[in-house]
Structures are given as structure tokens and as C-alpha cells.
Amino acid sequence: MSWxxxxxxxxxxxxxxxxxxxxxxxxxxxGIRCPDGCGVCCQSQDxxxxxxxxxxxxxxxxxxxxxxxTLSAIDKRMExxxxxxxxxxxxxxxxxxxxxxxxxYRPLVCRLFGFAVRRNKFGQKELCxxxxxxxxxxxxxxxxxxxxxxxxxxxxxxAFMKISSLSPEIGTPLIPINTxxxxxxxxxxxxxxxxxxxxxxx
Length: 202
Prior knowledge:
Blueprint: H1 7-30, E1 48-49, H2 55-63, H3 67-79, E2 88-90, E3 98-100, H4 108-112, E4 116-119, E5 125-128, H5 131-136, H6 138-147, H7 156-164, H8 168-171, E6 175-176, H9 177-191
Antiparallel strand pairs: 1-6, 2-3, 4-5
Helix pairs in contact: 2-9, 3-9
């Protein structure tokens, strides 16, 4: 699919809202939620995303006029080999706690983490819960893994394919989260009808 602003963004937002509703229903049914202020998953060095799933995020960064600051922060992290997400704001005294600077616009991988299923070798759905949630809520986690209705819980592979099919060229390659954010900003810079001033990455 070629760029059709704002059609593509609307479609991605629509898919995200659909998954958000299913995740909320699962949370209400099981009582499993992310612990307040937890930022453990945001501190992983292994988070990958696609340029496509980061487009709504990049669009909001542009809307807030924070594209240059974001790119500069990413470049500095890359220079020192830091792969942690640039959007994570840790608590001043408790770095394992924090928040996402653009939580409502976070990419697909961040939305599904801890609240999605995968298929085992027999094709059966298996719930993939966060290790922190399993540790803090062991009884609820066990009950969810054995008894929860997984019919409408997002499937990692199906969700990825649903998003990537909107624009396979930028929706298929998985790259480190900061690189995905950077490239999504660069992509919008060239594709948006109204270009904003932004330095080009080297």
C-alpha cells in the first residue's frame, strides 16, 4: 500500500483500538494487570519493532514538535550502545519504575507484551504473561493460563501480520526499537504532505 495520509494512520489506530479492547476485557476477566509504575519491559535491550507500527507514534512526535529532540536523544543512545527505548522515562530514584513518554501511541509490540498468545507446536494457543505479573499475581496467573477464555486475546503472529499487511515494505522487517522510531520519523518527514523542519540523520 502506498502512503495515503491520514488513511494509513487511521487504519493502524483502528487495529490498535481493537486490540486494546480485547486486552482490557482480558484484564477485567482475570484481574491481571501491569503493576503500577512498572517499567521492566521498557528496559529490555531486545525490544524490536517495525517502522510501520511506529508511524502513529512518529506522527504524534511531529504533532508535538519533538522530532529533533527525539532524534538527538536516539543518536546519543546509539553512540554509547544503549538499546533501551528512548521514550522510557525512569523514576528518578527507582529506575525499575517509570513511564512511557508517548504511552497512548506506543507501537504494537508494547501493546501486546504480557497480554497476547502464541501457538505451540500443536497449534494450540498459549498465554504469554509477563514474568513480573506472574511473580506478583501467581494465583491469578495460574488461573489465567489454565482456565481463561483465549478466544479474543490477541495472537502475536496474527497481530503482526494484520499490521504488516497494510504496507509490507515497512511493516515486515523487525529492527531495534530506537531504530524503528528513528526510521519512522524519517519516513514521515518525506511522506507527509506538510514537511516540517528536521535535520536528516547521517
